[in-house]
Amino acid sequence: MPELINQFENHQVHDDLRSAITPTEEIKSNSEGLTPDAIERIDRISFVLSEMQRRLGITDPLLVPINPLNKLQAPLTQISSHLSNFQSNKNEGHIQNAHNQIENILVHLSQIPVPITSSDMDAIREAAIGLRRSVGQHLRHLEDEARGALTQVTTLEGNVSNLQSVVERHSEETSALLQKFEQQFESAEESRQENFTSKEDEFHRSTQDLLDAKREEWTEIITKKQNEYDELYESINYRLDALETKFKDASNTVLDEMQERLIDAEKIVGVITDTGMIGGYQRIANSEKTSALFWRVVAFISLIVLVGFAITLFVVSMKEGFVVTASVTLTRGFVAVAVGILAGYAAKQADKHERVQRLHRKMELELASIAPYLHEFPEEEARKIKTDLAMKMFAQHDVMGSKESKKTTQSALNLLELALDSIKALIGK
Question: What is the domain extent for residue 283?
Answer without folding.
Answer: 259-428
